[in-house]
From TrEMBL:
Its main location: cytoplasm. An aminoacyl-tRNA editing enzyme that deacylates mischarged D-aminoacyl-tRNAs. Also deacylates mischarged glycyl-tRNA(Ala), protecting cells against glycine mischarging by AlaRS. Acts via tRNA-based rather than protein-based catalysis; rejects L-amino acids rather than detecting D-amino acids in the active site. By recycling D-aminoacyl-tRNA to D-amino acids and free tRNA molecules, this enzyme counteracts the toxicity associated with the formation of D-aminoacyl-tRNA entities in vivo and helps enforce protein L-homochirality. Keywords: Cytoplasm, Hydrolase, RNA-binding, tRNA-binding. InterPro entries: Daa-tRNA_deacyls_DTD (IPR003732), DTD-like_sf (IPR023509). It catalyses: glycyl-tRNA(Ala) + H2O = tRNA(Ala) + glycine + H(+); a D-aminoacyl-tRNA + H2O = a tRNA + a D-alpha-amino acid + H(+). SUPFAM superfamilies: DTD-like. Homodimer. This is D-aminoacyl-tRNA deacylase. Belongs to the DTD family. HAMAP family: Deacylase_Dtd. It holds the Pfam family Tyr_Deacylase.
Length: 150
């Protein structure tokens, strides 16, 4: 599982050109799921994201988490994070999970993040055409791959 985590002062996703969902201060997470991902990846990655200290404390030092800040989360599925560009110019998505694997894992991540921050999170819609906009605060962008825990 790969997550691109961006600290945002606000963010919005437009789904299929009509429905809009938004958050205030918090995290925008682009999540790529691969066939080899397990419940262990969900548990490890959700805890890592929730406890990631990338928000400033009262001294301006990045020392607080989204949980400490009572921030919100916008979670967007993005299979293109598993693109392989080794050969040619057209990316291959062979590592990206098929929907029958990815959807249940995505739903487990939604539940894990919601439980971790003790509030409902905002999501995109799996497989939909989405337009994501955000104000990246800092900017702060972190990439975490659950297959590279060490």
């Amino acid at each position: 599982m790969i997550a691109v985590i961006q600290r945002a002062s606000k963010a919005e996703v437009e789904i299929n050109g009509s429905e809009r969902r938004s958050i205030g201060k918090g995290l925008v997470i682009l999540l790529g799921i691969e066939e080899a991902d397990t419940d262990e990846d969900v548990g490890w990655l959700s805890k890592k994201i929730i406890n990631l200290r990338i928000f400033p404390d009262c001294s301006g030092v990045m020392n607080e988490s989204v949980l400490d800040q009572q921030g919100e989360i916008l979670l967007i599925s993005q299979f293109t994070l598993h693109a392989s560009t080794k050969k040619g110019n057209r990316p291959s998505y062979i590592k990206a999970a098929k929907s029958e694997t990815a959807i249940p894992m995505y739903e487990k991540m939604i539940k894990a993040l919601s439980a971790g921050i003790k509030q409902k999170i905002t999501t995109g819609q799996f497989g939909a055409d989405m337009q994501v906009s955000l104000t990246n605060d800092g900017p702060v962008t972190i990439i975490i791959d659950s297959k590279n825990k060490i």
